[in-house]
Amino acid sequence: MSRSSKTGQFVSPKTAKASPKTTTTERVGRGTSNAQPVNRSAITGKFLSNAYAKRHPDTTIRQWV
After folding, report:
1. CA of residue 58 relative to chain centroid, distance
2. Could you tell me how far CA 5 lies from the centroid of its own chain?
3. Which residues of the chain have pLDDT under 70?
4. How far apart are the C-alpha atoms of 26 and 62, rounded to whole Å?
5. Cross-strand bridge partners of residue 15
């Protein structure tokens, strides 16, 4: 599944391919406890600090792992 980092909405694979800097592809389903929130870059996939995520909301996503 692909998700927009701007809206948090799921988007089509075509949209994700057209906008790689503002979308992220993730696995949805079993295997996570969803107990801890983390911030990730939609561009690199790396974990980010809360301060960085607040300064760059259009290119970061917050997810529970």
Report:
1. 10
2. 5
3. 28-29, 31-32
4. 12
5. none
What predicted TM-score, i.e. pTM, was given to this entire model?
0.56
| Beta strands in the chain, from DSSP E residues, in sequence order | 2-4, 10-11, 23-25, 37-41, 47-48, 60-64
Residue located via tokens 């503002």: 22
Instruction: Collect all residues with Cβ–Cβ distance below 8 Å to 36 and sequence separation of at least 6.
Output: 64, 65
How far is Cα 1 from Cα 12, in angstroms, rounded to an integer?
8
Contacts of residue 4, Cβ cutoff 8 Å, sequence gap at least 6: 10, 11, 15, 19, 22, 23
Give the per-residue pLDDT at 31: 66
3 Cα distance to chain centroid:
6
